[in-house]
């Protein structure tokens, strides 16, 4: 009688142990896979303008451009002349490479396939089929003699 009770208890323990182990194993596999496959619930940034730094930003002064995040999109801010700042979508309209500015030629270039855009964002050479999207640039002045703050606004 006691032996049967001990066997029954042991069997229930083994069944419980195996059942919970398999359950834990499945949970440890299914949960991470589910989390990886389903996108996070982060709302898309609805940005209409971004602050892009000061007018004497080292990148703008030396290279003549800098890439700025505008929500999820990259925007290229170009210093066309001392007080002339322009902004365009930095995504090439051919196959989505990131463009850069060549100050010596006053052109935006895409190194992937040799696409070129002028300072109005118009596609002028290479395979890009459309112009770059143009953004409005405002310079907000601080105190007299201080560098201004560049603000890029969705046109
Ligand atoms: S991706 Fe820019 S030219 Fe092809």
Please give a quick description of this structure:
The protein is an alpha+beta fold and 155 residues long.
Report on the structure:
By secondary structure, the chain is α+β, with helices and mostly antiparallel strands. It folds into 2 domains: 1-42; 49-154, Rieske Iron-sulfur Protein (3-layer Sandwich), CATH 2.102.10. It is built from 2 helices and 10 strands. It has helices at 2-37, 58-62, and strands spanning 49-54, 65-70, 73-81, 84-89, 100-102, 107-110, 115-117, 123-125, 134-140, 149-154. The protein has a 6-stranded antiparallel sheet. The longest helix has 36 residues, at 2-37. The radius of gyration is 29 Å and the shape is elongated.
Radius of gyration (Å): 29 Å
CATH class of the largest domain: Mainly Beta
Domain module tally: 2
Q: What number is the mean pLDDT? A: 90
CATH architecture verdict of the largest domain = 3-layer Sandwich
CATH topology of the largest domain: Rieske Iron-sulfur Protein
Q: What is the string of SSEs from the N terminus onward?
A: HEHEEEEEEEEE
| Beta-strand percentage range | 25-35%
The DSSP helix count reads 2
Q: What portion of residues is helical?
A: 25-40%
């Amino acid at each position: 009688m006691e032996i049967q009770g001990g066997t029954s208890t042991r069997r229930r323990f083994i069944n419980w142990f195996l059942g919970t182990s398999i359950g834990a194993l499945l949970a440890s596999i299914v949960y991470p896979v589910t989390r990886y496959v389903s996108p996070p619930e982060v709302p898309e940034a609805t940005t209409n303008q971004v602050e892009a730094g000061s007018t004497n930003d080292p990148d703008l002064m030396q290279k003549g451009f800098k890439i700025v995040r505008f929500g999820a999109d990259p925007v290229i801010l170009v210093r066309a002349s001392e007080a002339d700042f322009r902004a365009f979508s930095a995504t090439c309209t051919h196959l989505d490479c990131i463009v850069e500015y060549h100050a010596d030629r006053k052109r935006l270039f895409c190194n992937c396939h040799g696409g070129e855009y002028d300072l109005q964002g118009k596609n002028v050479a290479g395979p890009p089929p459309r112009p770059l999207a143009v953004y409005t640039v405002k310079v907000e002045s601080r105190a007299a003699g201080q560098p201004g703050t560049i603000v890029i606004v969705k046109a």
